[in-house]
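WP5 quarterly update. Target: Phospho-N-acetylmuramoyl-pentapeptide-transferase. Source organism: Labilibaculum filiforme. Length: 417 aa.
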Amino acid sequence: MLYYLFKYLNQLDFPGAGMFEYISFRAALAIMTSLFIATVFGKKIILLLQKQQIGEIVRDLGLAGQMEKKGTPTMGGIIIILSIVVPVLLFAKLDNIYILLMLITTVWLGIIGFVDDYIKVFKKDKAGLSGKFKVAGQIGLGLIIGLTLYLNDDVVVREKTTMAEIGIQTELVDEGFTSEDPSITRLTMDVKSTKTTIPFFKNNEFDYESLVAFGGEYAPMLAWLVFIIITIFIVTAVSNGANITDGLDGLATGSSAIIGATLGILAYVSGHVVYADYLNIMYIPNSGELVIFIAAFIGATIGFMWYNSYPAQVFMGDTGSLALGGIIAVFAIIIHKELLIPVLCGIFLVENISVMMQVSWFKYTRKRFGEGRRIFKMAPLHHHYQMKGYPEPKIVTRFWIIGIFLAIITIVTLKIR
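Structure tokens (predicted):
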């Protein structure tokens, strides 16, 4: 909202109003505002949660220090959501389709998580919201994101072309791209595209249309169908992965902050025509505005760490964890970096896989031998290390270090092909 106010003031030559035109300036304001909300107002929200006796229900699993967490305020994800939404509403362009999708994602999954936490706390039902309703909500969000990216005319990719390659009426922009042959005029055109970034391959791009080449003239439409299905899968998998990872003080929050910082770098270069050309990656018009959103996301997660670090004064609950995972998934999809998720979100992936392996092996061995056997001492993986006697802060710190390593690999893939 302030963006539009200062844009108007800039037309009146108001001193300093032009600063709001710069994404970097608004991103800095967003991260500072989100940090302020999370740390200052976060304390007030924690006191309110304590007053309402909204405490964590803990099952005794025999983990060190586990029962000490009983009664710690939960539903702290409200702090994260407010710390993201308020700065974005203040500093971002609210007519940008990508910003609107990110706000919808944040609120949508935040509500699903809130209902789950509400049932656990106030209805005293440890199971919370039924799994099928959670999945239905995640699928619904995936459909909204996928269909919007398919149908909205503002969602395009700018591709390099030449005069000889243009066979349709389109807007051409001379972006100053260089060409090996000086006689060739290098121009660009904005197109709907099912291409995405794929790591370690020479051209760094993969087109979903190649999966449905058998469709002939219907291949482009089938490609979007494949894209929507993949979108639903990624949103569901990553949001659940973040939810599973949220088992130790600061683990999910810190991991999300690291992932968010990496996505911010990827969004900035993807939305900047010069950097996109230099790195030879696809340029996505208007996606640079996402830097303001991810700046608020980083500020919110770091600010929440003030109270969520060991020993935690508040837990985010499903209100926060589902929203964090969904934000990461949708953000990566929008900037065409969803195939980097297995690397970037390796912590979430391993946590998810550890649970699936444990459950599958237990069921298989119980059916075959009459007694269930386990691969890990406990799943998810972070509890396995707890059972082995590692202190909670050490586990969290080492997971963060691995997360930073994976983040560096993700960024490096832009040039290693």
